[in-house]
Task: structure prediction
Amino acid sequence: MAPQIPRDSSTLTQNTSTVALMRRLARESIRPYLWWIVAAFVCMGLVAATTGMSAWLMEPVINKVFVEKDKLLLVPIAIAVLATFAIKGFANYGQSVTMTYVGLRIITDMQHRLFAHMSKFELGFFHDNPTGNLISRFTVDVNMMRAAVSSAITGLGKDALSVVALVTVMFIQDWMLALIAFVVFPAAVIPIVRIGQRIRKVTADTQEEMGQFATILEQTFQGARVVKAYLMEEYEKARVKAIAERILALTFKATRIRSVASPIMETLGGVAVVLVILYGGFRVIEDAMDPGSFFSFITALLLAYEPMKRLANLNAALQEGLASADRVFTLLDREPTVVERPDARAFVIEGGEIEFRDVTFSYDASQTALRGLTLRVPAGKMAALVGPSGGGKSTILNLIPRFYDVDTGSVRIDGHDVRYMTFASLRGAIGLVSQEIILFDDTVRANIAYGREGATEAEIVVAAKGAAAHDFIMELPKGYDTEVGQRGVRISGGQRQRLAIARAMLKNAPILLLDEATSSLDTESERQVQTALARLTQNRTTLVIAHRLSTVMDADVIHVVDRGRVVESGTHAELVARDGLYARLYAMQFADEAEAAGMPPVVVAVAE
Result:
């Protein structure tokens, strides 16, 4: 059984250090755009320099213009102020646009990388992990990663450099006053670090709940027919309300924790300003400091307050993003259990003989699906798998294209172990029509041609006619250009199944795997499809799962599977004559017809 993504990701994130995550983010997401970030830092440096300049200019404005009333300096100072603010505006624009591009590239690259990595996972992974949780990695988590990177770079660049520039101005004007102003700020370090730690855990919990929320919504919307049929609207409303309330509580908790930094910084900022006014005012009164220098100092202090406050909140914002980064990296670090071997070869399937040799397979430690199973499907022949539900028939089909790998034994095609074949050569030689019909939210044409890139219109039509689908397709509003909706919701179950059969026919693979391929068809459509399948299966190796034994009576060999083993094999007539499990299943299915004809079931079977 494929391991699930750890659900208690909050514990995981607490064990992964901030430094380690930041290094990995820098290495894998930021490094490719280093020159863009250098350009952003240049712009941030200009913003910081002009911010400091605007504070420094307060000295000549006060001393030269308002105190000394020097008319000659009025225009030059005004031009300097205008130039300072213009440069700051353009630099702000440059860093904003550059960082936005880098952030968007990080999102796009990570989404590409995630999807490419997840496409390698075995089928069991997607069965074991709710779709909503996986989708949240692509949307919420990746966006929060981008926010963390942008916050970190902007904080370390624009805000930190602005603070440095402004503090420099303050020390130039009066170093003693600067020391007094900043003596109180180290007291904020410990509570701000603790706020970040708490934020990271709450964010991880929130992301997990968001994933569950998406899963519930997806299941409810897709199962709307069942929900309404069983009058479960109120139940589903209660489920959605409960998880929405949990998300609300966690989000509000994160807001409360994050907001704690504000009163801390406001109080410390107020204390700093009061100390500056008291000490600086005293020095101005005593003529130890001129008014221009004091106002330049106080302007620098006030301008430094906002970037300092953002820096104080940076850790909380960073921890939110790192919680999401840890969830994404956990998924990226998970290796698929079914992988292509380094020495795998591209085999050309010729005959297509399928053989299971003493195969044992378990989905998990408590669920053994196959127990020493051995069977053979002759090349170019049709074999059928029948037996009670849960006996392992679908598992057998899933092992052939390596959706899962056997625990022991081997699955072979033309004598070659499938584990030594490339995925392309193995799966390219197999056509599959499963009991669960999967259609994509696209046109009829695109769904038939799925997996056969470059198929011509004529080939698509021939496949549709062969699957008894052409007539109903032409009756659709736009024919082959009709959109079928998500999972084919706009067409009937039988129509969906015929499109899936047409897809397999178009692929024209040497091996066909049919899992209840005609189960949703009416009698007339089934007759047409059976005729088409009879033509399609000629000289092809075909393995069919069927519960209706009438559809496989003409198979070259029938394997009866029960509790993970092949208990009987033979033709229909041989198995009926053996009077074993197959004969009992056949008798039960045809009891009504036999009773109506006044004949024993076995006699009916032989007559047919």
